[in-house]
Each structure stands twice: as structure tokens, then as C-alpha cells.
Amino acid sequence: MQIHTSLRDSILGKSLILSLFLFSSCDEDPATQTITLSSFKPKTGKIGTPVSLIGKGFGTDKSELHVFFHETSTTIESLDNQEIEVRVPEGASTGPISIQIRNQKLISPEDFSVLDESPEGHEKNSTKPLSREEFIRDYLKNYLVNPVPENWDGNVAECNPGTINKDAIAQALDRLNYFRRQVGLREPLILSKDLSAQCQKAALILAAEKKLTHIPKPNATCYSKEGMEASMGNLYLSSAPRIGFIGQTISKFIEDPGRGNERVGHRTWFLHPKLREIGVGYTHISGAVWWNFHDAHPKDIPEFISWPPHGYVVDELVYPRWSFHYLSTDPRTDKINLAKVRVLRKNSSEEIPIDVIARHNQGNFGLLSIVWTLKENVKPQDTKDVILSVTVSDLLIGGLRKAFTYEVKIVKKTSISSPVARLKFSDS
After folding, report:
1. Contacts of 401 (CB under 8 A, 6+ apart)
2. Which of 42, 122, 145, 285 has the most CB atoms lying inside 10 A of its own CB?
3. Among candidates 312, 314, 313, 339, which has minimal Cα distance to 324?
4. Rg of the chain over CA atoms, in angstroms?
5. For the chain, which residues score pLDDT lower than 50?
6. Helices (DSSP H) in 273-388: which residue ranges?
7. Is the full-model pTM beyond 0.90?
8. 3-state secondary structure of 289
């Protein structure tokens, strides 16, 4: 399997950020007038809290309009052309509010924070690492699952991009969200139908050409403008069809093996705190994933992103390339050029030698990144967890040196994936 990361930030910065608002050219006909979502109030609330969405062009027909808190739909209680009244729905999580109206989509420029039912009112997307039991439940339920067949119905000879099983796409999104939860990003990604349609055409070009390229030429077999645009995302190509291809490739993107991927660019994009919405397209041997990012520095995210993550992780997901990423707010003062990495065994304080293989400043929408490999095997040899202490020091943040220390707790897969373990940690 071959995988390619996205094009340079300069291209992505111009091409991948989608507009938050969609406008039409006429304000007389309700079906074509300018539609805006300018604000909402309050900004935070528990399940059931009334929320007012302010804008214009909403119309008065409830059947034409749908409101979502992040990806959870809610019932419209009242509606006029400039205001929509809804309540925070059960199952909602912190994220943007979106409105789907007459084939147009509006996304709020800031997130609505869903508060817990506890008296303290903590936000639901807490970045505190999962407990061991929570971690195991999440792994068994959302990662260690049987793959769903993709059932692609397109045709390369006819240049038909086709479609694939929606359950297979949902499973791929679940796996990606699993990895993001592992690093403390609790806000699940949204699947975009429009971006997915473009990715389907990009995957078709790959399947027809059997060659990875981010800029397919106009004379490429099954070329389309939409497919060319989506080819700027993450791409992969297999030598033969496989069942469960989608989930396998998500894991490969996070692993980021092979020459040319020392900077773990695929992993960086998929675990980026600013990532909000993705499109997914697949054929029998190829795929493309494209995205939309937050337009501002997101709130309530982890202090840093690392893989393996801070907290528990299964040994099969501890890949040879380890990485640390910090989301910068000022490219003039934040640097990772001089950063050092130290890895210790928690029980003995024995230092494990490493090799730093890559580091980069401000690449990928503001992330400072450093990548290294370990010179010793650290995976569990029995059922006892291995705990490592990782320190990344000498980052320049705001012109000052800063260090981060975190623990990686490696769990042996066979100790939690047996039938007995499954029964113990199954939902009941």
C-alpha cells in the first residue's frame, strides 16, 4: 500500500479552507435570498437549554430547515426569517452549530460549549486522559471491530466514481475519531457529503491511473476538476482489493510508515486540533480523504498532541515513529528547532536512547512537530503494562523555553482482547 500526505501549506491554505457562510445573489425570492447566521445565544448550556440563532433569510417553513449541534440534530421550536429557536439536544457535544437550508449549509464561526450535568458545569469534551477501564471499553467497542465490506459500485472503464457502503464510511470515521479521542480531542469530526463526493472522484482518478499524484493532469484517465481539487488531500493506493480497506488505511495513515513519511504528515493532519470536517472517497483499490479546518485557534483542546498518546494505548498501535505536536499561536516566537526528547522507563528511571528523525516549525496550519524513534523495544512482554515517561524540552513558546512531560502506558493487546476480557469490559 502506498500513502501520500497533502500538498504544502501554502497550497492548502489557499485551497482547503471552506467559507463559513453561503450566499445567494437575490434577496427577494425566499428560495434564493441571502442567508446568514450571524450569532447565537447563549454560548454555553446543558442538554435542554433554549438557544436562539440570529441571522436572516431563514424563511418560515420548518420543513426546509435543519439545525445541528455539532453532528446531533435538534427540533425547531419556532422560526421566523431572522431567528430560530431550538434546544440543546440529547447527545450533543461541544462544537459548531450548523444549519442546513435549501441545499445550503451555514456553520457558526464559534463553538457552542455543551456543559455537563454536574454542579460544576464542566465541558463535556474534557481533555483528561481516559481511565484504564474507559480506555479498554473504547478500544473494544470502537477499534477492535469486524470490518464492513465497502461494496464499491463504480467502474473505472466507464469513469463512474460510484459509491460505497455508508456503514463502511461510518466505520472509517469512527476509527479516525477513536485515534483523536486517544490524544484528547473529544470533539468528533463531521462527515461532509460534498467533500466526500469530490474525494470519490479523486479516488477514481487514482484507480484509473494506478499512480499517486496530488496534481493529476487534465489528460489523466477519468480526470475531473472536482477530483483534481480533492487530490490535494491524503491519498493511498493498494495493489489489490481488500475487505475492510478503509479502516486499515486510517490506521496506516496514523502509523505513517515508509520512506518520505519521516515527518508523519498524514498523522499530523488527522490528529490536528483544527480539523473539523472531512470527506472520504474510496474505490476497490484507492482512496482520498480531504478536509475543512477551524478558521481560528480552537478552544478546549489538549495542551499538546502526541503519538503514542498521553495515557493508555494498545501495544499494536505503538508505531516505530513517535511524535509530539504543539499548536502555535505566534509563528514569530514559537519554535521547536532546539527541542530535546527524553524517554524513561517509569519503574526504573532507565533512559531509552532515541533518534530524532524530523522536526518542523509552523508546518500544517501552525503545528510545531518533532518525530523520533526508540532504539529499544518497549512493548509489554507479559500482561503487565509498560509505563514510560516522555519529556519534550526546550521548545520556544512566546520566546521562552518550555518543557512538557507525559506518561505513555502501553497495554498488551492479548490481555484485553480475549473473550473473557471482552465480557468483563462489555457494555451491559
Report:
1. 393, 394, 395
2. 285
3. 339
4. 23
5. 6-31, 117-126, 420-428
6. 363-366
7. no
8. strand
Q: Quickly tell me which residue has 469534551 as its cell.
A: 125
CB 409 within 8 A of CB 378: no
What is the residue whose three cell numbers read 499517486?
212
Work out the burial of residue 361: count CB atoms within 10 Å of its CB; fewer than 13 is exposed, 13-18 middle, 19 or more buried. middle
Grid cell at residue 242: 481488500
Q: Are 417 and 424 in contact (CB under 8 A)?
A: no
Which of 333, 332, 313, 277 has its CA nearest to residue 390? Answer: 313
d(CA 244, CA 236): 14
Here the cell at position 248 is: 486499515
pLDDT in tens, 103-150: 788 888 788 888 764 433 333 334 567 788 889 988 988 888 888 888
Backbone angles phi, psi at 66, to 5 degrees: -135, 140
Q: What is the 3-state secondary structure (H, E, C) of 290-323?
A: EEEECCCCCCCCCCCEEECCCEEEEHHHCCCEEE
Q: Which residue has the cell 478546549?
A: 300
3-state DSSP assignment of residue 250: helix
> Whole-angstrom Cα distance, residue 288 to residue 97?
27
Q: Which of 342, 336, 317, 318 is nearest to 406 (CA)?
A: 342
Which amino acid type is present at position 134?
Answer: E
Cβ(269)–Cβ(234) under 8 Å? yes
| Closest residue by Cα to residue 172 from 58, 289, 86, 53 | 289
> What's the farthest any 2 CA atoms get from each other in the chain?
74
Query: How far, in Å, CA of 388 to CA of 407, rounded?
Result: 6
Residues in Cβ contact with 428 at an 8 Å cutoff, skipping those fewer than 6 apart: none
Per-position b or e across 188-215, b if 16+ CB within 10 A of its CB: bbbbbeebbbbbbbbbbbbbbbeeeebe
The predicted-structure confidence for 163-193, as pLDDT tens digits, reads as follows: 988 888 888 888 999 999 999 988 888 888 8
